[in-house]
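Residues determine shape. Take a concrete instance:
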Amino acid sequence: MCLLVLAWHRHPRFRLVLAGNRDEFHDRPASPADWWETDTLGGRDLRAGGSWLAAHRSGRFAVVTNYREPIEEGRGPRSRGELVAGFCDGDAGPERFARQLAFRGEEYGGFNLLLGDPAELVYISNRGRGPERLEAGIYGLSNHLLDTPWAKLERTRRRFAALLAGEAGTDELMAMLADREPAGESGLTSTGLTPERERLLSAPFIVSPHYGTRCSTVLRLSEDGEMDFTERRFDPAGELAGESAFRFAIHGASA
């Protein structure tokens, strides 16, 4: 993912509400969200085999964003997407998985990783933070550390907080993610890219012929143990190209 907002124990009906956009080169092959051979649900990167966001029938979930930095610093011998798949398909709890990962973070390019299950939410980055167990709250993440106040993240987070005061419906959250307005000059980041590139990437939803928002995802875990997962996919023109929606009761949850 490249932009996500997340509410943990901040809605009367949902323990978790997560909404995010995945930005990627359009020619990088990926499969739509679906059930894997295991009990894990998510999209798959067909080049490296990992995922950007996935959830398990047990209620485990994970999402990763890249940390934006010069390309020679951002490479690693292993794919960051394997962290999402490894957690969801494994049996280590969020904090244990994150603490084990802290000893081998140099094997990956710069990343931010959120790991959760029905009981806890943990954040870790190999660029200077974590593991941290997160308390109830509203969080935002893009291609820097958790809650770094980039303009597009701050704008999305304000809209997200307003939606949490109501139903926080899937269509409302998808409309929030569809914001294509770039930041003004004062809101542009300075991460070593050209000004034109910084401006392109400053929109919550990115549209360009070669690189842009490939999919938007909403994940919600209700207090009564039901998870819903909706993915909408887009073509290079930013037009809707497909949608997948899933709803299931998590293992071990009370009815």
